[in-house]
Queue: 2 jobs
Job 1
Amino acid sequence: MAAESPIQKFDLNDPMPEEYRKLLIKLCCVEHGIEMISRSAILDFLTQVWMVGTYQAPSPYERVRTASYCWQEVGHSELFYNIAMDLDPALANEDIPVTQYAFHMKFPTWTELAAVNFLTDRVGMYQAREWVGSSYLILSKVAPMVVKDELGHTTMGYDRLERICATPNGREESQKAISKWYPAALDMFGRSESPRQFEYIKWGLKKQPNGELRRQFIADVEPLIAKLGLDVPDPNKNRRFF
Ligand SMILES: [Fe+2]
Ligand SMILES: [Fe+2]
């Protein structure tokens, strides 16, 4: 019996099948638009992080941490912009609106910012892990660094929540923030049945389906929320995509 042929890998200037190139452009120039310095959505998001994360920070240390977070995210944005530029300069420079609704939500308080970092940067980490060993060598080269940064971001959010949850008032605020951001984070994985994800998997641009990633996220995050002394929200409540 013949062994299954391994997934072919491509570097920037390699000839590519048309189907592969189209998917790659869709992934790098459109779908991953949030982390691109040419998009106003990332600038708006980082402005919110900066305003809340420096003015409301409880200590100089936390202000510096916010600055370092913004610096790393701007770094990702340039990195992914450069990847997109090599593939399709017109699309890379177009200010395409970001469809993930989480990026249009407001987080006006220190507690909400902590929940945003804990949950949405964690989704970013799971997504970046999908590119470790990617068939597009440029993506596979940058993925481990992005995974490491996003792990730092989600850990920062959790660590801040732990401190906030030390008081009954803080716990109450954190519960509200988690209830608001948990469904948005779960929806960031996309629809479980979307057909394109299976094309990405077929070409080695993604490893696991959206629903599987979401299940892993829920399994990992639920005990962490419980450890904060908070109720884990029903994962089906207030969701928009399944
Ligand atoms: Fe990032
Ligand atoms: Fe991040």
Job 2
Amino acid sequence: MTDPLNNSYYAVTAHIWRPRAFEGDLECDVAVIGGGFTGLSAALACAENGFSVILIEAEHIGFGASGRNGGQLIPGLRWTASELEAEFGRERADALFDLCWRDNRVQARIAKHRIDCDLKSGHLEAAWTPKDFDTMKREADYLAARFGYTSDVVAKADMADHIASPLYHGGIHDPQGGHFHPLNYAIGLAQAAVAAGVRFVEGERVHRIAEFSDGSNELFTTRTIVGARYVIDATDSWIGDVEPDLGRYTVPIMNYNIATAPLANASELLPTDAAVADSRFVLNYFRLSADKRLIFGGGERYSQTPPRDISAFVRPFMAEVFPQIADAPIDYGWGGAVAVTMNRLPHIGRRGNVFYAHGFSGHGALVTTTAGELVAEALAGTAERFDVLASLPSQPFPGGKWLRRPLATLGLLYYAMKDRLG
Ligand SMILES: Cc1cc2nc3c(=O)[nH]c(=O)nc-3n(C[C@H](O)[C@H](O)[C@H](O)COP(=O)(O)OP(=O)(O)OC[C@H]3O[C@@H](n4cnc5c(N)ncnc54)[C@H](O)[C@@H]3O)c2cc1C
């Protein structure tokens, strides 16, 4: 299927991956649905643990958010570590910190499989207001004192060392964060998975899972039936299509990115080559590509219909941050769905022999690899670390199938408006 939303810089600079398909009915220990970071990491780790694995992807590897995101590797979750400790107590905060901040499994996979995906270190959180900067400084102090996790507090006067924009009131530069080419990371994981014995069925959508009383499962696509002891549902924004009950826990919010033409003054815009995300509710996030384009994300849309001209939609956000390139040529514009949960924490768990991990709420580039690997770990019999993530609270959105999205949209519009009013 050609995807009008995928006129992306990533698609045209992707490494070669030949889509794979199998004919006839298939059997395996573990069937993974979805070829994004979560599904690929889970499939790879399951194969490494000795299971026979089939990964079924409706379109192609990286078709979903994993192949279209801003490429920002931001340690942690959407909640700060101090918020997690206040809510869940010291012991759970320790466990969450170890998994979501300290344990950088993306870096480990890139190193292990020598994945060529333009990995760069450094992430800057830029304060939209002085109040945001105060909050950031308090959190940086807390992280340093409590966990020995250090980052650099950048005063407003020193922001020019990192970013040529007058807008920001300071920031936190985290050398443990970074950025990468997300689609090439996904393809690298897929290649490692093939080498580990994972079989891929691409271009086939799972329509239904039948669970039998002995715990086994059958997955039905249009052309194939896959029999599996275990299922890992890693379909994120689409999870409700196969598992309607799980679909109640997320709503998809459309988010758009552009890539300028290569810029002669790229290194002046972002001198330390860090990825940047600002503290607005509907945030701006941006970074340089390996060939010195500015990749800029900004402006959510609560309608599922994309803007007619994505570049024109995102350009004003870029021009506000960087007026000096307001008229720069834009070569690519694309978008994708961010699966958002009610409380912005991922929804991870298990029902019988069906495992799921979704709803990373725009903060999934790093933690999806961890989540996928922890599902594999649980499936191999050690659920302790999986349970740390699976025990995060989650609530379905109110409103049933038809009202869920409009109600969630109203809530998000309220916060976006508050943000605009300051
Ligand atoms: C525009 C955008 C920008 C973002 N920027 C960032 C960022 O900079 N940093 C960050 O941390 N996070 C970011 N995110 C979020 C991050 O990309 C996601 O959290 C993460 O990629 C989710 O990965 P996943 O594997 O769970 O899901 P996905 O990558 O969405 O993969 C799900 C896959 O399942 C397949 N599928 C769906 N239904 C079926 C079915 N029935 N049968 C078979 N296959 C099926 C889909 O085709 C898809 O390939 C962004 C997201 C978007 C959309």
